[in-house]
Design a protein that fits this description.
This protein is 46% helix and 18% strand. The protein has 199 residues and is α+β, with helices and mostly antiparallel strands. The protein has 2 domains: 55 residues; 135 residues, Holliday junction resolvase RusA (60s Ribosomal Protein L30, Chain: A, 2-Layer Sandwich), CATH 3.30.1330. The protein has a 5-stranded mixed sheet with strand order 1-2-5-3-4, with no helix packed on it. Strand 3, helix 5 and strand 4 form a beta-alpha-beta unit. Helix 1 packs antiparallel against helix 2, helix 2 runs antiparallel to helix 3 and helix 4 runs parallel beside helix 5. The protein is globular, with a radius of gyration of 18 Å. It starts with a helix and ends with a helix.
Length: 199
């Protein structure tokens, strides 16, 4: 815990520097530079909230999740088309721990609720969970696929995008690779993968 707090203190100092840059030079900066700085500050808030969420008692969980979930959802992004939906999240899928999982699922549901009227609904679908790990992420800490809580995430996706998450109608795929940052991309495609055609 002390190690995590020390890491957050370092991040906090970086955020203060970012805020100073934004205050002094925002008029001269390109939109993408500003966005990069803002996102960097959001990651600090997200890490701090996750650490805090791990310390609260289970009796206070429901009350505290209502505070944590909106902050987690701030980093989510979505692309919507008639035949696919792509959701980018600046964190990995939750592990099978109630506290972490509830925070994540509440955030995902809150985020999708914003776009509810624009989302397509698929009878048959392929859901791809694409796990990205930053170049400096320790290889020993890269998770096996069965350590990602996909089942509960699918339940949330079903409420907004799928007529059913039954295996009869929905095919699930997971892939892990290195990327520029640690994040998760969930791709919901219309139609199920035809394995016979691939083979």
């Amino acid at each position: 815990m002390n190690q995590k707090i020390s890491a957050l203190e370092v991040q906090f100092e970086n955020v203060k520097k970012i805020l100073q840059v934004l205050a002094d030079k925002s008029d001269d900066m390109a939109e993408q530079q500003l966005l990069a700085l803002v996102r960097e500050s959001q990651y600090f808030v997200l890490d701090a909230r996750k650490l805090w969420a791990g310390t609260i008692s289970s009796q206070n969980m429901e009350e505290q999740m209502s505070i944590v979930a909106p902050v987690v959802a701030e980093g989510f992004e979505i692309q919507i088309a008639s035949n696919k939906v792509i959701i980018n999240m600046p964190i990995l899928l939750p592990k099978r721990k109630p506290l972490q999982m509830n925070c994540y699922l509440d955030a995902l549901e809150m985020f999708l609720q914003i776009y509810r009227q624009k989302l397509p609904r698929f009878r048959n679908a392929t859901v791809i969970f694409h796990h990205f790990y930053a170049p400096d992420f320790p290889e020993r800490d890269i998770r096996d696929h069965d350590n990602h809580e996909t089942r509960a995430v699918l339940n949330v996706l079903e409420r907004f995008l799928l007529e059913s998450d039954s295996a009869v109608f929905c095919t699930n795929v997971q892939q892990t690779q290195r990327g520029t940052e640690t994040m998760t991309r969930v791709i919901i495609l219309q139609g199920q993968i035809d394995l016979e055609a691939i083979l």
